[in-house]
Amino acid sequence: MRESQYIAWAKSRERFRYNLGRSSIRPCPLDDLAMRSEDVAICGDNAHGWEPLREIIGARYEVSADRVVLAIGTSMANHLACATVLDPPGHVLVETPGYEPLAALPAYFGSDVETFPRHREADWALDVDEIQARLRPGLTRLVILSDLHNPTGQRASAEALEALASLAEDRDFHVLVDEVYLEFASDRRIAASRSPRFISTCSLTKAYGLDGLRAGWIVASSSIAEQLRALNDLFGIIMPHPSERLAARAFERLDVITDGVQGLLAPNRVIANDFVERRTELDWVAPAWGPVGFVKVAGGRVGELIDLLEREYDTTAPPGSFFGADGYFRLAFGMTHDDLVAGLDRLEAALDRM
User: Fold this and answer.
1) What is the CATH number of domain 35-252?
2) pLDDT digits over 326-339, tens only?
């Protein structure tokens, strides 16, 4: 596979006025950053990632700065992690339903990719027994998951992560945890703090509305981090320095930015949950954190629904087939209040017509 079918689909949907599947929060207001002229310095001492930013991230997660590797968004962070660990490619386990690029990446590197399920009946919880049952002794090199889980918005329990850490250490594999949505949660203890076998990736894109900065990072063991930095010389080489500077500024202003995000997200979550609960043909496990949930449509008529939304209502949402679960769609509620209400009005009209 040489592309992400989901990302290609998502880019092609930018033309629609209402996107009920866009996974990030609305753009961060510039006033929240209180930018200074030095925040857009073009060049700096950043051959191995600007040290002040690495120190800020390390302090946030209570790890040393040498364990922090900067990357161009979570996407490149995941790419670097796979490229480092998958040598030789080996066998990889990836959650389903799940974010399609997390399976496409190891497949691109030539790995034998197998899925392990997260079950709706268990509220999409991370089940380590499902992983253990699929391990191949001496061949499984990597397990990939997301936390918060994309597309359901559910949090992996501390017990499950600890059990997975013990399993990884015992059976000699690594675990890549895409934590780009974890920034929405109140407890942001990262997986990489639990075991040297865990690799955490994240960015400022989803939770803070700073997509355009492409300011991402990896937290890993010191030895893996050293390999990641060396391998990045074949890919991004260095981060754009203005992005590093603006990311550091964003961390300084994170309380202000977070207040704005939570002020938007809390009422929007109520609106979205009320809508799903009111519509008898819809069902979901309501997400406690983050801006997305995974909605089941009675009768599985998702393709018909999305087609009607796009054709008649200038509205779209990603079908669950991109996440490995037909009969669902991902519903986002991180946009402005007015856009959410207008988008749900159009969704309701389409459901009524069906």
Assistant:
1) 3.40.640.10
2) 999 999 999 999 99
